[in-house]
Design a protein that fits this description.
Layout lengths: L3 H5 L4 E3 L2 E5 L10 H6 L2 E2 L8 E4 L9 E3 L6 E2 L5 H11 L14 E2 L8 E2 L2 H12 L15 E2 L2 E2 H20 L11 H6 L2 H7 L5 H21 L1 H16 L4 E8 L8 E8 L4 E6 L8 H7 L3 H4 L5 H12 L3 E4 L2 H19 L15 H9 L1 E2 L3 H9 L2 E2 L4 E2 L10 H17 L6
Parallel strand pairs: 2-4, 11-14, 14-15
Antiparallel strand pairs: 1-2, 3-6, 4-5, 7-8, 9-10, 11-12, 12-13, 16-17
Helix pairs in contact: 9-15, 9-16, 13-14
């Protein structure tokens, strides 16, 4: 009957014609090449493996060869310096115990310093670290007594200290630490507003911050003055001779390519009204559009159609340079209305159809007769100076005029005044 020792050394298979063992069944008198090296032995010339052992390796690989140590040859003796270096690599820096294997370099907040530490010391120090308060140094038996590195008493002390620091910070200027609020002011303030209203920056720090921001803004404007300068001069010219300019805005049934105009207003460069009228679009106004501008079907039911308003538009724009905030959109609505109007009164000859992208010649002629000035939205974007990396240009800004034609025209005047009155950067 086989003994336990015999069963323990039984091979589990064969590899390249030799016995194959697992790590637990390999014979003690057979060693791997690494184990031979640890005993200061090296393979003899022509020495062949006697078996193989199957081991778990992190990056794969086949079975490892096993050799007889009595067939290997001894390595050259180490010098004293080499012996000392090898001993140091096998010695734990915590317990000073020298082992048979090279110890790994370990790092961790529980170690006195990074170095070669044996597994037992590393585990013991880590376990002790987790049950020791890092503030007061008290060592507890139960690791649950320490939470986030602090015991209960220290955690409460730190919480009170942080609360004191927070309350002091709320009462003092964040720039120079001058007191700018009292306990009573903070105590009587709405808790929801404390984080928004406090701390209060003192007048001196606020003035200094405003000056820094102004200096940075002037430098930024100087860097792009080749583009910003012409916009400033243009706005100043409009305000200097407002009678030479006309500002146009429309409200429509939507943003689609076939949207109809429901309101049109025209002012001069100073905001004086030249035309302000509803326009009957001869189609229902969608609810989505009404929610934006507030114009309903009832409001435009008795209004003139576009063709009836066209002479007034032509007269108001005569001799004036035309400014539109979103020029591409509004001119697109105007040319579409002109096309519908002229197609109704003077359709193209039978059998002749215009391409979809072309308009009635009379509509094109009317558009060409106007003096279209620069797009106010693009000019205002240059003035604000918010760069859009996504679009690769200055970010367009909302007009903020309330979505009624006359109000939007007058808001354009305000934007022009904002551009014109901005101080020029000086060196």
């Amino acid at each position: 009957m086989p003994t336990a020792q015999t069963v323990a050394t039984q091979p589990v298979g064969r590899h390249e014609g030799l016995p194959l063992y697992t790590g637990r069944t390999a014979p003690d008198d057979l060693l791997t090449q690494r184990q031979l090296t640890a005993r200061r032995l090296r393979l003899a010339e022509g020495q062949k493996p006697r078996a193989y052992v199957r081991v778990s390796m992190p990056y794969g690989g086949g079975p490892v060869a096993l050799y007889r140590p009595d067939e290997a040859v001894a390595m050259r003796p180490l010098s004293p310096r080499q012996q000392a270096a090898m001993t140091a690599r096998r010695t734990c820096t915590v317990c000073s115990t020298a082992g048979t294997e090279v110890l790994p370099e370990r790092r961790g907040p529980w170690l006195p310093r990074p170095g070669r530490v044996c597994r037992d010391c590393d585990r013991a120090l880590e376990e002790r670290y987790r049950r020791t308060c890092r503030r007061c140094g008290t060592e507890f038996q139960d690791p649950s007594s320490v939470n986030a590195g602090r015991c209960g008493a220290c955690a409460e002390w730190v919480s009170r200290a942080e609360d004191v620091v927070r309350r002091l910070a709320l009462r003092h200027c964040p720039g120079c630490a001058v007191q700018t609020a009292t306990r009573e002011e903070i105590a009587t303030a709405d808790p929801a507003d404390v984080a928004l209203d406090f701390p209060v920056t003192c007048r001196g720090c606020r003035a200094a911050e405003e000056e820094r921001e102004a200096a940075a803004r002037r430098q930024e404007e100087r860097d792009r003055w080749d583009e910003l300068g012409p916009v400033r001069r243009w706005a100043q010219q409009v305000l200097a001779a407002p009678h030479r300019f006309a500002i146009v805005d429309t409200e429509t049934t939507g943003l689609e390519s076939d949207a109809r105009i429901v309101e049109i207003s025209i002012t001069d460069g100073a905001g004086r009204t030249l035309l302000d009228t509803f326009v009957n679009p001869q189609t229902p106004i969608p609810a989505d559009a009404t929610r934006i501008h507030g114009i309903t079907d009832a409001m435009v039911r008795n209004a003139p159609v576009f063709g009836e308003v066209l002479p007034c538009i032509t007269q108001a724009l005569s001799g004036r340079r035309v400014i539109i905030y979103n020029r591409a959109y509004d001119t697109g609505r105007l040319v579409c209305e002109l096309d519908r109007h002229h197609q109704a009164i003077a359709p193209t000859l039978p059998g002749i159809s215009l391409p979809p992208e072309e308009y009635h010649p009379a509509a094109v002629a009317w558009m060409d007769a106007q003096e279209w000035d620069r797009c106010a939205m693009e000019a205002y974007a240059v003035h604000v100076g918010q760069w859009s990396a996504y679009f690769g240009g200055w970010r367009w800004q909302p007009l903020g005029g309330g979505h009624r034609a006359l109000g939007d025209c007058r808001t354009v005047v305000q934007r022009l005044r904002e551009i014109a009155e901005a101080p020029d950067p000086v060196d």
